[in-house]
Amino acid sequence: MTVDTSPRAVRVGRDGALRLDFERRGAATVVADCRFTLPLQVLAPVALDDPAAVVSILNPTGGLVGGDHLAIDVHVGAGAHAVLTTPSATRVYRAEDQPTVQTVRLSIGPRAVVEWVPDHTIPFAGSALRQAIEVELDEPAGLILVDAFAAGRIAAGEAWRFSLLESAISIRDTAGWLLHDRFVLRRRAGTEDPALDGLGFAESCPYFASIVVVGAFDRARFAADVHAWSGDGLAPSLGVAVLPRRGVLVRCLAPSAPVLLAAIDECWRLARGALLGLPPLALRKA
Predict the structure, then answer these.
(1) Side-chain-side CA neighbours of residue 244 (13 Å)
(2) Does any domain span residue 228?
(3) Buried (b) or exposed (e) across 253-271, using 16+ Cβ within 10 A?
(4) Residue 102 CB: number of other CB atoms within 10 A?
(5) Residue 261: inside a domain
(6) What pTM did the predictor assign?
(7) 3-state SS of the chain?
(8) Sign, CA torsion 151/153/159/164
(9) Model pLDDT for residues 73-124, shown as the tens digit of each residue
(10) pLDDT band at 61 (very low <50, low <70, confident <90, very high)
(11) Positive or negative: CA dihedral 198, 203, 208, 212
(12) What is the pLDDT of residue 235?
């Protein structure tokens, strides 16, 4: 018998999976099925004065590490309405070897609505994150989606010190593609500070977000309302593009976290009003 004594690499990181199914039962949306494996977990749905079922997705380990592979699958059945958020910002820690990989798949049935509004992601110095958000929705369905980031731990002087930050948003309906949007920010080997915050990049703004709204609504009016808004104090830089079909894409650059959060809240408020005819949703977060 031959014994294999060769050294083998020990994998760092864990495989986490989350499956959520939402159904419409009478006038309410309920969580019909929920399965997860750590480091993914969900809290019990929150009872708010709103037709949606509000669920928080969390990582009880405190953050993501290199080598984590996370898969989130959400199915929202006909006529159901789900809001998915996080209790706080997501931290991505330094990766020694393999990146953190997260894949989110949203399946939205006829007349259903999904609001994907997690807090922003904070990539620590030396971290590496690859993220993909894939959405399949029926023709009479709605979507509000937020994908927001800090450039790092800004107060600790770690802006733009991550190794890799990649995020892709892919949205399709029964007629074909609505949006495919992807960015890749990579720290160049042998350089101290990659020129990501200058002109043509982040314009000296270390917080940024993409907000997508899809459904049956007045897209031109929504775009005009976003352009017309200006926050208190230091205002964010907002750009709006009306998609060829059904949707609007908003870009946001912000000089601080409070300005970013205010801009996201305002865009979310305008989107809820335009798409759903609903007032803002005040999430109860500590």
Answers:
(1) 8
(2) yes
(3) bbbbbebbbbbbbbbbbbb
(4) 22
(5) yes
(6) 0.91
(7) CCCCCCCCCCCCCCEEEEEEEEEEECCEEEEEEEEEECCCEECCCECCCCCCEEEEEECCCCCECCCCEEEEEEEECCCCEEEEECCCCEEECECCCCCEEEEEEEEECCCCEEEECCCCEEECCCEEEEEEEEEEECCCCEEEEEEEEECCCHHHCCCCCCCEEEEEEEEEECCEEEEEEEEEEECCCCCCCCCCCCCCCCCCCCEEEEEEEECCCCHHHHHHHHHHCCCCCCCCEEEEEECCCCEEEEEEEECCHHHHHHHHHHHHHHHHHHHHCCCCCCCCCC
(8) negative
(9) 999 999 999 999 999 999 999 988 899 999 999 999 999 999 999 999 999 9
(10) confident
(11) negative
(12) 78
Q: Which domain holds residue 49?
A: 15-276
- 120 part of a folded domain: yes
- The first and second tokens of residue 224, run together, are 């005009």
CA distance 235 to 62: 31
Domain count, the chain: 1
76 belongs to a structural domain: yes
